Amino acid sequence: DQTINRIAAGEVVERPASVVKELVENSLDADANRISVAVDSGGTEGVRVRDDGVGMDREDLQMAVEEHTTSKISDINDLESGVGTLGFRGEALHTISAVSRLTVRSKPRGGDTGRGSDAPGNDAGTELRVEGGEVTDVRPAGCPEGTVVEVEDLFYNTPARKKFLKTTATEFDHVNTVVTQYALANPEVAISLEHDDREVFATEGRGSLESTVLSVYGREVAESMTRVEHEPDDGPVASVTGLVSHPETTRSARDYLSTFVNDRYVTARVLREAVLDAYGGQLATDRYPFAVLFVDVPPNTVDVNVHPRKMEVRFDDESGVKSAVESAVESALLEQGL
Ligand code: ADP
Ligand code: MG
């Protein structure tokens, strides 16, 4: 039933940042070297993600936006373990299209569709439009190799959902956080973000965390960063690597803490506390440092599926992880004579 689908989709697609997250993830899955994200009015008016990934032909494109009843949550265990990032594996594009007007233009990488050089549409890409979950148009379209997905009028058909959106500034903040995390975690991919036609940042994809931090946070922050390297000596509790800022290079209001557990972006109270504790009394009241930390733990000691939509994790050995992170950051600061 359409209405039920829309309501379900509205629950799963929380806000523009959730759309951005799914589209960027698809671009990374498609082996993109460049990904550009552009949003209007915090993403409430429009989201566009362009990549130079493997692309799709007409058939792929039609399949990509279909409702995959077969791959839908097949039993309650799937739901509880939060498969996929939206909680519906293989359903992100369809789910987003159910609550928006979605346009995808794509062309397979390598240009040759394998159908012979005079087959129709061989050298062109395909454009597909979906509105409220219904495909309204499919046609050949000239476009570069790769894919561009445009999502307009998010929640146009779910007014109750639309009311939950916050101000443009808040929605953009969420979008910025998401794109920043993917940029930091994928330094070998050139990732850019534009808001209302203004460039917010653009990474070069040169592969180093330092150059990515420079692009994302700017020179002042990048120059204040110091390396964190910590290999556990007795027992594999956690290895911790990354960058943390000088205690005087801070911001107020919110923290700029990016933590990745086994390469997946997560939020965990225990990691945040560990970092702030490591700075101890060196931070002024209400000031937060910049930190990008990659924490690796044996996979069987962490539960990454605490919540299907959120990025929370739970560690078997919370205090062990906390002290590993705290001492890693502490010794990095100490080495700087701080
Ligand atoms: P999932 O990513 O879980 O497979 P999605 O609904 O996000 O589900 O995407 C459906 C499919 O569409 C993907 O499996 C992929 O084959 C294709 N697809 C989506 N986005 C892209 C993209 N940017 N480039 C190439 N293929 C894509
Ligand atoms: Mg996906």
- Any idea what the shape is? elongated
Percent helix: 25-40%
- Give Rg in angstroms: 21 Å
> For the residues shown, what is the average pLDDT?
87
Given as residue ranges, the uncertain stretches (5+ residues, pLDDT < 50) are 70-88
Q: Total number of β-strand segments? A: 16
| Strand order, sheet with most strands | 5-4-3-6-2-1-7-8
Summarize the helix and strand pattern as letters: HHEEHHHEEEEHHEEHHEEEEEHEEEH
Count of DSSP-assigned helices: 11
User: What's the N-to-C terminus distance?
Assistant: 61 Å
- Portion of residues in beta strands equals 25-35%
Q: Tell me about the biggest sheet?
A: 8 strands, mixed
Q: Which small-molecule ligands are present, each listed once?
A: adenosine-5'-diphosphate, magnesium ion
State the secondary-structure class.
alpha+beta
Which oligomeric state applies? single chain
Task: Give a short overview.
With 338 residues, the chain is of the alpha+beta class. It has helices spanning 2-12, 16-29, 58-64, 76-80, 92-98, 159-162, 168-185, 209-217, 219-223, 269-279, 318-335; strands at 34-40, 46-51, 101-107, 125-131, 134-141, 146-152, 190-195, 198-202, 225-230, 239-245, 250-252, 256-261, 264-266, 287-296, 302-303, 314-315.
